[in-house]
Specification:
With about 450 residues, this protein is of the alpha/beta class. It contains 16 helices and 14 strands.
């Protein structure tokens, strides 16, 4: 920190507020039933505290809002593009950069250039949109996260690490030509926002180089991951977040990023390519028809300026200290109540072990999703299931995937809520503790083929 004394106060003051309102219980019940028992389909006005996602839901700084007024909305060659390009090259140690409208836009541009039909993409643990874009491109995503990640009660400093023994065995078993690329997600969202160590990234880099397989990074929460490296990994305590980031990204061929997380903005995405000009040119060609011209990529100039400024703000250690501590605070409040969570608490969310909390509900009846619905009914709090519903169906068998982790994610937007809001969430859980045996499982009544959790509908089991 910048001083020896840290009072625990937020390193910012509030300039603008947005009113929120807790609807009466009967109105909440009516709202969630009309939404098909799917919190995604609620109106934001029906939600009191919204912990659905940290993607694009945070508050921007006065500096970012000032930058928005300097938006150059030229179709080609906007000065904001060049500001963002310089920022990306400076922080991420890459030579080439393209903007996209958000992270899934980056995946949609890059993945089809890397994947051939039937190839595998091993990673520590893929998130939903990453897995979907791998499959849309004809590939198969494979999760090779370390075993401790599947044990919520076991605390380890880097539960997002790739199991390098499994990675090597997988490549040898399938053959190098059947592996399109390797991807490291930081922090590892599906495992509970768990960080990846520098040592593990170096091991994965060495394996990728040995087999001549490209290595990419899903960089949505790069700064939070770098903060955990600084705090938990030997040899990095005296390095800056920027220095750690540059070292980490120097080990990969490139990255995709949703800037809606650690870009501290409401919209935006990035593609970074370390040095492969040929891949960059092919990505440019694909970007134009699916996202937009190469110097805006689906973004207004003002949005690019906000990203350029946000990327520097997110690597400030005062910001990261408060951010990580607030998430940990909610985790401690729930742990003190006896609510089972993924330990240690990750960078952007607290992940409740829904399968354990509602142990009377079989996994095929979506215990964590049922908990998300009851959380809204009980207190107007919106969370999201990261489990059986999100895992979807096996593309080959059509059967529901039953992941080892079945979690309810309580995702904290950046610079948005106070610790009193976190206390309220914990209070709602204290009430759910008293009635959890009466919470019912659920069944699907409508199910889209891809990313079903966004728009599916449900009914309670009787």
């Amino acid at each position: 920190m910048s001083s020896e004394f840290w009072p625990g106060a937020e390193p910012f003051k509030i300039k603008v507020v947005e009113p929120i309102k807790l609807l009466p219980r009967e109105e909440r019940i009516n709202a969630i039933e009309k939404a098909g028992l799917n919190p995604f389909l609620l109106s934001s006005s029906q939600v009191f505290i919204d912990l659905l996602t940290d993607s694009g839901t945070g508050a921007m700084s006065d500096n970012q809002w000032a930058g928005m007024m300097l938006g150059d909305e030229s179709y080609a060659g906007s000065r904001n593009f060049y500001n963002l390009e310089n920022t990306v090259k400076d922080i991420f140690h890459c030579e080439y950069f393209l903007p996209t409208h958000q992270g899934r836009g980056a995946e949609n541009v890059l993945f089809p250039l890397l994947i051939k039909e039937g190839q595998y993409v091993p990673g520590n643990m893929h998130f939903d949109t990453t897995k979907a874009h791998i499959e849309i491109a004809g590939g198969v995503g494979v999760n090779l996260v370390r075993e401790e990640a599947y044990k919520p009660s076991v605390s380890a400093p880097f539960k997002g690490d790739m199991d390098t023994d499994k990675l090597r065995s997988f490549i040898q078993d399938k053959g190098r030509d059947r592996v399109a690329f390797i991807i490291m997600t930081i922090t590892c969202n599906s495992a509970g926002g768990q960080p990846v160590s520098m040592a593990n990234m170096k091991e994965v880099h060495d394996i990728a180089r040995e087999f001549e397989i490209p290595l990419f990074i899903d960089a949505a929460r790069f700064a939070e991951n770098a903060y955990f490296i600084k705090k938990r990994e030997d040899g990095y305590q005296n390095k800056t977040i920027k220095e750690i980031t540059r070292e980490f990204f120097s080990l990969a061929q490139g990255f995709t990023m949703s800037a809606k997380k650690d870009g501290l903005v409401n919209i935006g995405g990035l593609i970074g390519i370390a040095s492969d000009e040929g891949l960059f040119r092919r990505a440019q060609e694909r970007l134009v028809p699916v996202e937009g011209f190469v110097t805006y990529g689906g973004l207004a100039g003002r949005d690019m300026e906000a990203v350029a400024r946000g990327l520097y703000e997110v690597i400030e250690e005062d910001y990261l200290e408060q951010r990580i501590n607030q998430v940990a605070y909610l985790g401690k409040e729930l742990t003190d109540l006896g609510v089972p969570i993924q330990k240690p608490v990750g960078g952007h969310a607290v992940f409740v072990d829904g399968k354990s909390f509602l142990s009377h509900i079989p996994q095929e009846h979506f215990p964590s999703h049922a908990l998300a619905v009851e959380l809204y009914i009980e207190g107007g709090v919106r969370g999201v299931e990261i489990g059986t519903l999100l895992a979807g169906r096996d593309p080959q068998t059509g059967e529901n995937v039953m992941p080892e982790l079945d979690l309810l994610r309580l995702t904290i937007p950046r610079r948005t809520y106070t610790d009193n809001h976190m206390k309220y969430v914990a209070h709602v859980f204290s009430r759910l503790q008293e009635k959890k045996e009466s919470i019912r499982g659920m069944k699907l009544t409508y199910e889209p083929k891809i990313l079903r959790h966004f728009t599916a509908s449900f009914a309670w089991l009787t």
